[in-house]
Structure formats: C-alpha cells, structure tokens
Amino acid sequence: MGCGGTTLFYPLLITLSVALITYNIIISSNTPLKQGFPSSSSSSSSIIDPVIELPRGGSRIRGNNERKRRLFHTAVTASDSVYNTWQCRVMYYWFKKIRASAGPGSEMGGFTRILHNGKPDQYMDEIPTFVAQPLPPGTDQGYVVLNRPWAFVQWLQQADIKEDYILMSEPDHLIVKPIPNLAKDGYGAAFPFFYIEPKKYEKVLRKYYPEERGPVTDIDPIGNSPVIVGKEALKKIAPTWMNVSLAMKKDPEADKAFGWVLEMYAYAVSSALHGVSNILHKDFMIQPPWDTEVGDKYIIHYTYGCDYDMKGKLTYGKVGEWRFDKRSYDSTPPPRNLTMPPPGVSQSVVTLVKMVNEATANIPNWGE
C-alpha cells in the first residue's frame, strides 16, 4: 500500500514551526504532564528480575494467557538506498513468517515501512509502505537519522493505523519468535542500551529536561527502537522527539556528547517529558557477536560486524577470514547462499546467517 505525493516546502515549514512551538511550551512548563500515564517520579523503588526491569515501580508482567489480546503495528523507517532496502526486504520476510507461525492469538498486527525519501520505489507492492517527505535540504546536517522522527510524525498524522500500539523497529532487526505486546498499564516497553547514560550526561540533558521536571533518572536508557508504546502516546511524543533531535543537532555540546546516538537520547528525553516510562526488557533483542546465544530473545539486531578466523575465534576490530557485516553490502545486496561461519562460531551468528540465507533464497527477484 503506497501513500505519498508532493509536499511543498512552506506547508512543511509551517508544520515544523507549530511542532517547535509545542515543544517550547512543553519544556517551559513547570506543571507535570498528565496524559493518563504513570508519573516517572511517583516511585523510587525498583523491581528487577532476570528478564524484566520495571525502572520506577510497577507490577510484574503476567503471562500472555492472563491478559487480553492487544494488537501492535510494527513500523520501520527507511530510505530508498540499496543498503536500507535489502535489510527491509529480509526483515519483512521474517516478520510475515513469524507472525503466521504465531497463530490466531498473536498480538502482532500490521506492518509499515515508512519510506522517508518522498517518493515511491519499486518495492511498494512487496512491502506495505507509507511515503513520507524528508526534512528540507540541509536540515539533517548530514545526519540522515534525523528524518526518522519527522517520518513518524507524518505517518501518525496521516495513516489509518488500526492497532492501539506501535512497535518501532529498524531494518536490521530479524524477528526470531512471536513478540507479545510487552507494554502494560501505560508503560512503554523498550530495550535498555548500555551506552545510553543519562546520569553521565546530566549537564547536557538538563537543557532539554529541566530540573523542575524531576530527576535525570526519569530519562530511561533507551532509544526509539525497539520500543512498544501506545499509539496515542506516540502521537504526543513524536513531535517533541523531532524537535529535541533538531535542537540537539544544532547544539554543539549535545552533538559532540551524543554523536551517532543523538536521536536515541532525543527519544528518551521526549518520552520522559510526556510522562511515559518504559519497562526495560533486557531480553527484547540480542546483538551478535557480543551476545552469543539467541535463547528466548525476540529480535536479532545485526548492527555490529562479525569477524572470525577459520578456527571460530572472534577477531573484532580486525577483518576476519570469515565475516558478515551489513556494511559490506551498502551498494549491492548480499548474494544468495552466503558462506556459513566456520565451526566454533557462536550460535547467534550462525542463526543470523541462516536467516539471511533463507530470506534471500525465498524473496523473488533478489539482487535484481
């Protein structure tokens, strides 16, 4: 399904300006936001178990059989680059297969690729797609990820989304088993990243999350993906996320501190500004080669290169005799039937390559 068309610069500029005014109102107000979500400063206790961390209080998540079926829509932002496109095709193959395997009780709803280059591409019939307009030229300052929050703003405003929850995912995510709706009681559900450290960067973050809002620990150590969050909550968060991202990119101190994870910090701040706390699921996904077993995880995130010698020893930082790195395929898709890793390589990497090979073997016109 394709949606799109030409959006003129001036209406876009007006929309951006309105959203910026909204953001300024949010951060200048001393009154905590009340939107039906738990206050991030309402509890000081932490509840931790091996799988789920409730960062600021809350009840333990129960089994799927103890709750109603709550559908979520999976959304992935992407450009029309070869690099993004082949990853989206592989991801959507596995989304369809895993959703079908889950049966009628699955909470996995629809899927949308949000294509933020402003025009349809040749894969509109293969992958359900919404065409969003990019930011005005020069706005992203070479940091193309800034288009992600703006693309979500457009999609949430214009698309007919049936589900009440959204899973924000990425092209380099492979779903390995059916994902339940992990959000609960107004909390979002997110993966905690070790390199998102609000306390370490409190001085910078206070520009965007003032002290009167609460402790800096209200800002969860998350990005925008993977995150499951209520649709109505995300409609409020997304414009703020867009403007905090733009403001941080224009701020030399924030830009230097956060670098390539800047928009991740911007989402975490924006979620906190709107009073949306997140249940931190350490088992939401794995990231090979550092995570060696798939186990009970839901997603493989292949953001890191996997380099090994022929004895199966990891040679990270040095190109291995055997390697799989998505960046090797920035201008052409990976070929079908990639060579499998040598004996001794971790199960997570073996599973990753098997999944890529299965997808490319079954996706029509691969590499054309």
From TrEMBL:
Coarsely, its chief localization is membrane
Q: Where in the cell is it found?
A: Membrane
Q: What would be an example GO MF term here? A: glycosyltransferase activity
Positions of the Hydroxyproline O-arabinosyltransferase-like domain:
72-366
Metal-binding as a keyword of this entry, yes or no, is no
* Pfam families tied to this protein: HPAT (PF23452)
- A GO CC annotation given for this chain: membrane
Q: Which domain of life is it from?
A: Eukaryota
Record InterPro entries: HPAT-like, HPAT/SRGT1-like
Transmembrane feature ranges: 7-26
Membrane-protein topology: Single-pass membrane protein
Q: Coiled-coil annotation: which residues?
A: none
Q: Which UniProt keywords apply?
A: Glycosyltransferase, Membrane, Transferase, Transmembrane, Transmembrane helix
Q: What is this protein called?
A: Hydroxyproline O-arabinosyltransferase-like domain-containing protein
Question: What is this organism's lineage?
Answer: Eukaryota, Viridiplantae, Streptophyta, Embryophyta, Tracheophyta
